[in-house]
Amino acid sequence: MKIGDIDVAIPVFLAPMSGVTDSPVRRLAAELGAGLVVSEMTASDELANGHWMSRLRCEAAGIGPHVVQLAGCEAHWMAEGARIAEAEGADIIDINMGCPARHVTGGQSGSALMRDLDHAVSLIDATIAAVKVPVTLKMRLGWDDRSRNAPELARRAEAAGVKLVTVHGRTRSQFYKGEADWDAIRAVREAIAIPLVVNGDITSYERALAALNASGADAVMIGRGAQGQPWLPGQIGRRLKGGAEEAVPSLETQLHYIRTLYEGVCALYGLRVGLRHARKHLGWALDVAAAASGASVEKLKSWRQKILTSEDPRLVHESLQDAFDDFAWSAAA
Ligand SMILES: Cc1cc2nc3c(=O)[nH]c(=O)nc-3n(C[C@H](O)[C@H](O)[C@H](O)COP(=O)(O)O)c2cc1C
Question: Least crowded by CB within 10 Å, which of 46, 60, 109, 173?
Fold first, then answer.
């Protein structure tokens, strides 16, 4: 698949997730084979105004194309944010028209833009005019069931010069409820010729295949399914390319991944903030490892309690080793 001039060989992408997919997470997923990884959404005005956190959100993973996702509702900020992202190394700019959060839609950004396609297209035009790199777009099916206008927005975006469209198969009013409707994305496929990515509830090779078949998309994007399983996009990608089914990585390998992530997050934010920030990843990693080893709920609960409340980074490392050793006992029992 090509995004502008950029070749993407593996049709499985890691979704942008605010507060989750910072550079260490993206780096690990990309190293493990994800075809493309997308930064957390960054408010274009904050980026343009040099807000330190938005700079961190845009930090490159250092492997594969660097995709920066921008949110916003004013053309001049979108243009300025895109210019800065490009100057700082973005290979692709993605525009967020899918975020359902009230603090985002209340400011007329994210999925609120699907209620006013003329305005949405004016933001796309301004972004494309500001940069040389390809611009892509992520959206939902529409605002609600009465206004499922993703095909119309996708068609207009393609005409404006967008190089790839991703659709999360829910409306904004669904938030994350119900099931993603991959069939409904077929109407977007029929509206555009540029690459299309299907997103929502893809957690396995079988579901990836079903989503591709139902939607006619060229690639899948995985969000929550990759939490605690950074290897999942790569594994699914290799299988879609004809590779054999792969087992869940060994506990030893899983421990190596979570340690890598923990160290990366602490290096990015500093020890104190990093420790807090890493907790969600530690929790997901423990959940996945406990499930893989058949460890009891009580065992998992007590390790979660010990590791996720620790204020001592060194102790977290030691306790992780102990927890995974304990899970290995459960697996052997
Ligand atoms: C914690 C969280 C944060 C998210 N942040 C973003 C974001 O910054 N930008 C975006 O386009 N979508 C964001 N999303 C939506 C995901 O990219 C994706 O569209 C959605 O989770 C559905 O895919 P999934 O079922 O594979 O998780 C977020 C989702 C979650 C769960």
Answer: 173
